[in-house]
Specification:
The chain is an alpha+beta fold and about 575 residues long. It folds into 2 domains: about 5-290, PPM-type phosphatase domain (Phosphatase 2c, domain 1); about 335-570, paralog of FGE (formylglycine-generating enzyme) (Alpha-Beta Complex). It is about 25% helix and about 20% strand. The chain is built from 13 helices and 20 strands. Strands 2-3-4-5-7 form a 5-stranded antiparallel sheet. It has a 4-stranded antiparallel sheet with strand order 1-9-8-6. Strands 10-13-20 form a 3-stranded antiparallel sheet, with no helix packed on it. The longest helix has 26 residues, at about 90-115. The protein is globular, with a radius of gyration of 24 Å. The chain starts with a strand and ends with a strand. Mean pLDDT is about 80; it is low at about 185-195 and about 290-330.
Length: about 575
């Protein structure tokens, strides 16, 4: 059982929902849990028209910070190669500033690579031309990093120390094992909770980073965006601190109930508060570690901004038990049989360049999940909830490609099947090999996914979306989702009885991304090399173009952005 627990949540700001068109949430949060330390990060994309990719900038910042801090802790806190490399109070400022410089450097590189791979188009190109009229997207003098502008606050709890680095607004709340819950003064001036908005895209951002270091190991650490901080800005910050304290208390007592409560509260906080995007992430020692959270005062004198669901009682964690091994050839529960066959893969007209050329593809038969893997299914297998707040019946999201193959292997083992993947290495450099002879769960190939989305063998293949030419019949998308994900299986399935193949949550596939070859193929598995993995189906925030059966997307496998569904070979 892991020593640490993490939680996270975010929501679109009330003012952003009212905008026309609505503005997606620009905040991003994440955490990473290891045996001897835990890391969390929060980023607030600037969101104005000039920062046309601040949402992606925030996502990149959190992903890079989690990975970089994990490597930093391993080298300076767990097993330093040289004693002089150990993180101490005396050298903390120097080493943490170096860590910040490393994160910013990687972030700038990631932004530039993203800009080169995906030049602005459509609305993005219109905004670019509006605000940068004398420059071309490929201009050598263009400050690409500025287009991805975001704040960043990140921290870690280790067995020897805890630390935080921050550039821009937002705040960290530290809950010690004894004493007062507080905002570290090194990161935020408690007399002015709304700190100045700086950006990691600024040329002088390294001089703007603030650092906090302590050898007094806290029970918990909570990071929030300025939306949460400023909405609780009254009463000298006490209401904000109690909110953070209560969030940790509830997640310690009943994780799932606390997640539902936090999901319900953040949108209300935005409406009652400053109407900005809301985001929150926390890490804390598991209660079994026998480290008590100080200052929890129950329900007496709760501030007006108390998180709903605060009266929950602790319930014991349900044990995860293995299902009995299935009979060979039997149908997995909630899976459908997809007979093999041939089809024309790709878009003949109206699609993007990477959906062409159309060519004949043959696939072998397989079982496929009726719906994406749900949060309830994830929790039953993995014992945690990696997603933002929703509920057991909703698709799991915020999952990396590595997370998805890890889930497939663990579920296979629980059900007495041979895992489909062998995984070696650590972090973003992990190597995953597919054992084609295994009978365990795996991700679909891109060809299998499109074949099933279009109805499989004998399907006319003419539907624009999976099961219909009307997006509203079969998909939760930008125009009917209300800006939120929905429970799996609530709309019409396609001809194979598969739900949510279009919209709701984007789904990882096995393949490395690349352009299609022109020749016919049998059981293709993607490009022979590359850095990004394919995802399909679009999500509740995408427009109709992105949720078509033939539409493609891709990102690095360590990016925690999507959902997935499983298949098994026949």
């Amino acid at each position: 059982m892991e020593k640490y627990i993490g939680f996270k949540a975010k929501c679109e700001g009330f003012s952003h929902k009212k905008a026309s068109p609505p503005i997606p949430c620009q905040d991003e949060v994440g955490f990473a849990l290891r045996d001897s330390f835990a890391v969390c990060a929060a980023a607030d994309g600037h969101g104005s028209e000039k920062y046309i990719r601040s949402k992606e900038g925030a996502e990149f910042a959190v992903e890079i910070a989690l990975e970089a801090i994990g490597e930093f802790v391993a080298k300076t806190c767990i097993s330093p190669a040289d004693p002089r490399d150990s993180l101490t109070k005396e050298n903390s400022e120097k080493l943490l500033k170096g860590l910040a410089a490393h994160i910013v450097s990687k972030w700038i590189g990631r932004a530039k690579a993203d800009w080169e791979e995906k030049p602005p188009a459509g609305t993005g190109k219109t905004l670019f031309d509006k605000h940068y009229p004398n420059q071309e997207p490929s201009s050598e003098g263009l400050n690409i990093a500025k287009l991805y502008g975001t704040t960043l606050i990140a921290g870690a709890i280790t067995e020897k120390c805890a630390f935080i680095i921050q550039c821009g607004d937002g705040a960290a709340c530290v809950i010690p094992r004894d004493g007062e819950v507080r905002i570290p003064p090194e990161t935020v001036d408690e007399n002015q909770l709304g700190s100045l908005t700086n950006s990691i895209s600024s040329s002088d951002c390294l001089s703007l980073f603030r650092c906090f270091y302590t050898t007094e190991i806290p029970q918990a650490m909570v990071l929030v965006s300025d939306g949460v901080l400023e909405s609780y800005g009254g009463n000298g910050g006490k209401d904000f601190l109690r909110f953070c304290e209560k969030a940790v208390e509830l997640h310690s007592a009943d994780y799932d109930q606390a997640q539902k409560a936090l999901k319900g509260w953040l949108p209300k906080l935005s409406e009652k508060g400053n109407e900005d995007d809301m985001s929150m992430v926390g890490i804390f020692l598991r209660p079994e570690a026998k480290l008590e959270v100080a200052g929890i005062s129950g329900n007496d004198n709760q501030p007006e901004g108390e998180m709903i669901g605060a009266d929950t009682e602790r319930s014991p964690e349900a044990p995860v038990t293995a299902s009995p091994p299935p009979q060979l050839g039997s149908a997995p529960s909630d899976f459908v049989r997809v007979e093999g066959g041939a089809f024309q893969m790709g878009s003949p007209s109206g699609g993007k360049d990477d959906e062409k050329p159309v060519r004949a593809v043959t696939v072998s038969g397989f079982w496929m999940g009726k719906h994406p893997v749900t949060q309830g299914e994830w929790h039953q297998v993995m014992g945690n909830n990696i997603s933002p707040l929703y509920g057991d019946g909703f698709p799991v999201e915020g999952v990396s490609w590595f997370d998805a193959v890890g889930y497939a292997n663990r579920r296979s083992e629980m059900e007495g099947l041979t895992p489909a993947y062998s995984i070696s290495g650590d972090g973003a450099s992990r190597v995953v090999a597919w054992n084609h002879a295994a009978n365990g769960y795996r991700l679909p190939t891109e060809a299998e996914w499109e074949y099933a989305a279009r109805g499989g063998n004998g399907s006319p293949g003419s539907f624009e979306y999976s099961g219909s030419n009307s997006a509203d019949e079969v998909a939760w998308h930008q125009n009917n989702s209300g800006g939120k994900m929905h429970e799996a299986g609530k709309l019409k399935p396609n001809g194979l009885d598969l739900y949510d193949m279009s919209g709701n949550v984007r789904e990882w596939c096995w393949d490395l991304y690349g352009y299609y070859p022109s020749s016919a193929e049998t059981n293709p598995e993607g490009a022979p090399s590359g850095a990004a993995r394919v995802s399909r189906g679009g999500s509740y925030v995408n427009g109709a173009q992105e949720i078509r059966c033939t539409s493609r997307c891709y990102t690095v496998p360590s990016g925690r952005r999507f959902g997935f569904r499983l298949v098994r070979s026949l």
